[in-house]
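> tool_call: predict_assembly(chains=two)
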Amino acid sequence: MEGWTQTGLWLTVLLSGAYHGASPAMGWPLAVSAGLMGRGRRDLLAGMGQLAVGHLVSVLAVLLPFALVLWLVTYQDRIRIAASLLVILFGAYRLVQRRHPRRLARIRPTQLVLWSFAIALVHGAGLMILPVYLGLCRADGHGAFLAQGVAAGNLQTALAVALLHTVAMVTTGGAIALAVHGWLGLRFVSRSWFNLETVWALSLIAVGVLGLIP
Amino acid sequence: MTIRPDPTFHATPRLAMQAEPEKLAYTLLLSPDFSQPDALAVVDLDPQSQGFGQVVSTLAMPKARDEFHHFGWNACSSSLSPLTGHAFLERRYLIIPGLRSSRIYIVDTKPDPRHPKLHKVIEPEEVFRKTGYSRPHTIHCGPEGIYVSTLGGAGPDGTDGPPGIFIMDCQTFDVIGRWEIERGPQDKHYDFWWNLPRDYMVSSEWALPPQFENGIVPEQLLANKYGHRLHFWDLRARKHVQVIDLGENHQMALEVRPAHDPVKQYGFVGVVVDTTNLEGSIWTWWREGGQFHCRKTATIPPEPADPADLPPLLQGFGAVPPLITDIDLSLDDRFLYVSCWGTGEMRQYDVSDPMAPKLAGSVHIGGIARRTAHPNGKPYAGGPQMVEISRDGKRVYWTNSLYSTWDDQFYPAGVPSAMVKADVGPQGGLTLDKDFWPDFPSGFRAHQIRLEGGDCSTESFCYPSV
C-alpha cells in the first residue's frame, strides 16, 4: 500500500463519486426528466436528491458490514484479502454478464430512491470504493491497537467515505442535469452516453488488485 | 451492444422529427390463399435514388400459412431512459408474428438494410407452452423487453382462456412468459400502447379467434359481440386498473395511439363501426385526477350505395360503412390519420385540440363502391388500411389489405398489393404522389409498413419535447 497516501485515497473517493454521477446509467437523465415533466428546476433537484439518497444507502450497505468486522484487528489482513477478491470476482462477473437485470424494469419511474439504490448495488458502485475504504482504515489504524477505538473510527470513516462519494456523485450528476435542463438540451442525453460497461468492470478488477497489495 | 447509443434513438419526439428522413420501408406481404410463404419487402423511399418507389428486395419466409399482420422493432427511443438499462441496444431486428400460425420470425436488417436476413424463428409451440396465448399481434419494445399482444388464448380455436400480452427477451428473443399479473375483466385483445414515464398502458379489443379467423361473423357483429372496451393498466405493477366501455354498439375498438410527448396524458382510439348507424368513430381518452376518461370526438358517416355495387355482406344495408381500421398520430401530436377502409378515404384530422379533431385533409382512393383509381391511373383495390407517417410528418404511406378472410368478404374481387405515398402540406392537406407505386410480386397482399430508423407507430419517448 506504499504510495497510497491518505490524500490519494480520499481523492479516489471523490473521483469515483464524480465518475458515478457523470454516468447517465446512474440516473442524472431521470432528474432532467423529473424537472421537465414536473415544475422545472425544483423537481429536477428533488429527483437528484432522491438519486443521491439511494446511492448513499447502497454504498453504506457495502461498507458498513466491513466496518463492523474490522474491529477484529487480528483478522484485518484476511478481511482485506477477502474483500479484494470479492471485488475482483464481481468485476469479472460484470465483464461476462453485462445484462441489466430485467427485474429492475419493474421499479416505477417515481421510485427514484429505490431505483438508485438497486442500480448502484447491481453495478457494484459500493464495491468499487470498498478497497479504498479498507486502505483508509489501515492508514487511520496505524499505531491504534485499542480494538474499540478502531471500531468507532472505522464506522466514522465508512460514513465519511460514503458521504463524500455521494456528495461528489450528486454534485457532478446534478450539474450535468441542470446544464442539460437549462442550456444543452435533451440531445445531450444520447450524445453523452458511452458504453462504459467494460471500463467499469475493469475498474472494479483494478481496485480489487490494488487492495490485495499488502 | 454498441459503444454509443443507436443514432436512431432520440430523447424526444421533436428530436426524432429533426433527424434524417427515412430512406427505406419494410412492408409485410401475405399470401391470402396460403399457396406461398409470406414475405417482407424492402421499398426504396429515397427521392434521390434511381429506384425510388420500387421494391429493392423481398425476403420469403421458410414456412407458409403464417398470415403476417403487424410487426415491430426490437428496440426504439425508449432505450434512452436509464430505467430500461437498454441504452446500447441496436434498432436492428424486426419482430414479425404470424397471426394465423403463432410463429414469430426475427429478421436482421444489418449489415445491409436493403437485404435483410432471417435471424431466428420462434415456433408456435414455444409461444403456447410458455404463455398459454396464441395469435401474436402488436409488438412494442419497452422497459421489460419486447411486449407482444395476442388475440387468442390456448386451445385449437384460441378460446381456452383469455388472450393477453407476453414478454420476449430483447437480446436472445426467448419467450419469457405472460405479462399480466392481474387482468381484471379483460377477455379480448387487440392493440396496446403506453406512456412510459407516467407508468400506464392502454389496451383495446377486437374479437376472439372464432369471430375473425374465417371472416367476420355478421350475426355476431349485429348482436354486438365484438370488442367495445378500453382497458387501462398499471404498467410496472402489470395490473388492470380501469375499464371503459364505449357502449356495445361501438364494435371493434382497434388502434390505440397515445400522444407521443409523455407530458401529455391523452390519446386516441378508433372504432370500426357503430352497429346502430354504420358510422365510424374516433374517441379521445385522457387521464385526469388519477382516473381515465373517454369520449367520442369525431364521427364519419356511411355512404349510400347501389346494392348492385356492394358485396353480399352489405347489400341489405344499401350503404358502405367507413370502417375505420387504422389510425396513426404524427410525432408532433398534431395530425391524426384515419383509414376509412370501406369508403376508400384517408382522412387527416388536426388534433391540436385533442377534444375537438378538425378535418384538415382527405384523399380518396379505392373503396367498396367508389373504387377511386390512383392518380397514375392504376386501379387500387381495397381501401386505405395500415398507415405509417414519416418521423418529420411530411409523408404518409399506406397499404390496402385488412386481413385475408375479411378482404374476401368486403372486396371479393381481391386485394392485390398496393402501397401509396401522400405528401402533407405545411398546414395540413394530403396529396397522393403520382410517381410512387411499388410493383410488388404478384399473389400477395400488402399489410403493415415499418420505416427504417423508426416511425410514428413504434417509437416511445421518455422525455418531453421542450
